[in-house]
Amino acid sequence: MENLLEYGVKEKPRDCSPAAEPNQKPGRQTSGLSTVYATELTFDPSTAHKRIALTENFTKASVSDEHINYPDCPGRFAVCSQVLASKGFSTGRHYWEVRLTNINFIGVGLAYSSMDRKGPTSRLGRNVQSWCVEWFDVGLSVWHNSSETVLANPNPKRVGVLLDCEAGTATFYRVAERAYPFHTIKFPYPAFLEAIYPAFWIFSNGSSITFCKMQQ
């Protein structure tokens, strides 16, 4: 797994502001999970590896056949084909969903802004600043600080993430006719001393991750 590095998404992020309402729980919606904490997100092109193509108003990330002419900047991933969302969180409750295409080599996770972007530990889940639920071939694992925990694979086409900064947790859901939780990350205390960002890894051509339009 550790040898699968390098790859790489295009456009300009739009403004989006999260809506969070405390003291409520996710319920039902057209996507399968209702979102009283629904958060509209886009990908941040200043973080995208040069093999990541960003399309559909920065809501879709996929692997490009060629390097994209992104400008060099300190926040850009240089080793792994990864990208962060345009918004991070340190307080409140926030929920988003992504649609996955060809999930053989895809990771959905969270990362602090201080995560390394260029060094040998710049892959999601291989450092203390990031966590990654990773589909690799037919298996599913969660990674943190280079430690792997194997999970049962729900093989989803749509994944929801509920980040609860006050509780210090992030719960991952398989979204179908309803939402089925399949893993919860408990962040070490004290959590969220800096903003944490939705983070993504895409390796193979034909794979893509798209932010879903959320409905209140």
Automatic annotation (TrEMBL):
Domain of life: Eukaryota
A Pfam family: PRY
Cited PROSITE patterns: B302_SPRY
GO molecular function, one term: zinc ion binding
InterPro entries, per database record: B30.2/SPRY (IPR001870), B30.2/SPRY_sf (IPR043136), Butyrophylin_SPRY (IPR003879), ConA-like_dom_sf (IPR013320), E3_ubiq-ligase_TRIM/RNF (IPR051051), PRY (IPR006574), SPRY_dom (IPR003877)
Disordered: annotated segments: 8-31
Gene3D superfamilies: 2.60.120.920
GO CC annotation terms, alphabetical: cytoplasm
Protein's UniProt keywords contain Heme: no
Domain (B30.2/SPRY) ranges: 21-216
Key words, A-Z: Metal-binding, Zinc, Zinc-finger
Protein name: B30.2/SPRY domain-containing protein
Organism the protein comes from: Neolamprologus brichardi (Fairy cichlid)
